[in-house]
């Protein structure tokens, strides 16, 4: 089938408005947060699962590669195909939400954002166990399940992959596969659902996701600690992590806290959320007390220590939340000191912040690099990372390249160490389209800087290699992190066999996961 025939067929099947071929839009779709790839042949936005199946069948008949895209917040080339010529499938219009309160299950379209899902469930006093990353205004449920992610609810309930019962997946043939054999649970025999978590769409395109439901716990305590060294920080959060007293927590070093996070936590931001704090507080007196704490704290929590950690503790009632918070303080205070709880109060009130962090606090380009470490390797990795920075200090300072770090729990046994890398450089169509024009006007406008970009890329690759030396695992593997080199020959053979069975022509996001 000629490419013009394919485009005509797609327009006929999906509607002309659902097939984009304009150069400006294709340039936007050719970028993620970090990298620019080849131009897609087209970007399609099917409005129903049946339309998605039709689009996949047409592409398969034409032998054209298909690349699924969720909210677009990938920074690991997850939907970037270097050679271009593919059909990018934007799942954003698959946005239905069906809440089954009797069975405590919600079924959502792959394009539903975590923010919209939260709003729909909150109206009924419900939530999913894991309920979204910080980028949940844009990040979709389908994208998060395909990439794996964590943040809200992760201490108590794990990552996104642990909060799913089953998928409906459109395979490369256009057929629809339901991964769970039982609506009431995921693990009926071998875990076929798990096979499609973290696959980056290489095995198929997620159409629907089924997740379990929990009641929202309205009573909560926000607790923050500061630490003078990374070793103290790690010891404190390791103790908290295994105790699982909090719903979620995250840590920041001084550079990130004063830079990227402080930009969202300034005086104006706190004034903006003051009403929300009061509205969400179980008691108005308690809400007023929180506001007074925030006012007294000023910006001090951003500078309270070399490392800071922020906890959100939920309870069945105020007494339960206070009891858990007391136990948490007892454990963590052995390693750090309690500080004003401005940051977790903000996050609880505004869990999904605007995507300002896709640029640095001064308008620089930004990319995160992360690894999930075993706890006994965390301190040694931190030492090695700082030694790596010291070895490149002269070039990084000359070129304006800098870093900050953030940390999160991954269940009781994994420690996520995430490095934010910044450098001065021109913005891409992705940044200019994603961010509001008025917001961008308030930032410094950097010219293209090939030398700084090359330095940042070298540092990024060196960090990825260092993570591998310490045996780290990764979320959002895409095309950026090594995967198959970490597998045994038997495991690689099994992975390849699954790919050939589900996608014999190799048309589903070719190159993702190294497939």
From TrEMBL:
UniProt KW Nucleotide-binding keyword: no
The FAD-binding PCMH-type domain, residue ranges: 36-216
Keywords: FAD, Flavoprotein
Cited SUPFAM superfamilies: FAD-binding/transporter-associated domain-like, FAD-linked oxidases, C-terminal domain
Taxonomic placement: Bacteria, Pseudomonadati, Pseudomonadota, Alphaproteobacteria, Sphingomonadales
Native organism: Novosphingobium jiangmenense
Annotated protein name in UniProt: FAD-binding oxidoreductase
